[in-house]
Amino acid sequence: MNSEDLSVKIFKALGHPIRLQIVKSLLDQSRCVCELLPAFDYSQANLSQHLKILREAGILENKKIGVEMHYRVKLKGITTLLEIMDQTAIEYFETLDFKPNENR
User: Fold this and answer.
1) pLDDT > 90 in the chain, percent
2) How far is CA 23 from CA 1, 7, 15, 50, 66, in A?
3) Higher confidence at residue 62 or residue 3?
4) What distance in Å separates the CA atoms of residue 3 and residue 92, rounded to the nearest whole number?
5) CA nearest 61: which of 71, 46, 48?
6) Which of 9, 72, 86, 91 has its CA 20 to 30 Å from the CA of residue 22?
7) What is the pLDDT of residue 56?
8) Which helix (H) or strand (E) holds 84?
9) How is domain 3-75 classified at the CATH fold level?
10) Contact indicator for 28, 22 with CB cutoff of 8 Å
């Protein structure tokens, strides 16, 4: 796998709204699955599938502590990448004639 393939894999993993939310929730600290479940209205199996995709993309890493599986962001550049993505979205909305939170 070359760096371009890996970049595509990372963007694909972050391209799903749930996975993006999971990563954002792990930016400040590691969390166990039991802490993530209440924040997401999905089954543990569904959440585990999303976590697996994020791990396989190299974005997250996990560590078993006792009986709990803890996840954290593995790549430090992810924080910067997400900040740039958010800023780009804001910049895009500024080019339009409405605001992102405006209801039509």
Assistant:
1) 65
2) 23, 16, 11, 10, 23
3) 62
4) 27
5) 71
6) 91
7) 95
8) helix 77-94
9) Arc Repressor Mutant, subunit A (1.10.10)
10) no
Q: How confident is the model at residue 28 (pLDDT cuts 50, 70, 90)?
A: very high
Q: d(Cα 2, Cα 74) in Å, to the nearest integer?
A: 19
* pTM of the predicted model as reported, rounded to 2 decimal places: 0.83
Q: Which residues of 19-33 are buried (b: 16+ CB within 10 A; e: fewer)?
A: bbebbebbeeeebbe
Tokens 């039991």 identify what position? 34
Angle at which helix 44-56 crosses helix 17-25, to 10 degrees, equals: 80
Structure tokens at 102: 């405006």
Distance of CA 103 to the CA centre of its chain: 26
Res 99 pLDDT > 90: no
Mean pLDDT of 2-9: 89
Question: What amino acid occupies position 44?
Answer: Q
